[in-house]
Specification:
By secondary structure, the protein is an all-alpha fold. The longest helix is centred in the first third of the chain and has 33 residues. It is flat and about 90 Å long.
């Protein structure tokens, strides 16, 4: 009986170690995926490498801005031209049912309540 208990405890110890190692790996992976240091390291690397320039988001020249605005205008015009035509507007004349409904609402009589059974 004692050897069987030792075997069970050994198996459960191995299982526990594997379980906690998997949980630690999962937490570590989640930390690595959400950490901010890789972005800072990449920015530092770009700043230290000679001849490489970081993105020029704040330093756009006027000619570059004009070129981008023209490209956007052309893209919008092409998208609108290739889009499906807008559906026609529905008929604005009210139907007979709508007239009957409005007349009933405006008559001033309270709506009828159904009898409870």
């Amino acid at each position: 009986m004692l050897s069987q208990l030792e075997t069970v405890l050994e198996i459960s110890a191995y299982g526990t170690v594997i379980l906690f190692a998997a949980l630690a790996g999962l937490l570590g992976l989640m930390y690595l995926l959400t950490a901010q240091w890789p972005a800072r390291a990449a920015q530092w690397l770009l700043e230290t490498v000679p001849g490489s320039e970081p993105a020029t988001f704040g330093r756009i020249t006027d000619t570059e801005r004009e070129r981008r605005l023209r490209a956007v205008a052309i893209a919008v015009a092409v998208a609108r031209a290739t889009a499906a035509p807008a559906p026609s507007a529905p008929d604005r004349t009210p139907s007979q049912w709508r007239h009957a409904h409005l007349a009933r609402r405006l008559s001033g009589q309270p709506p009828r309540t159904r009898a409870r059974s």
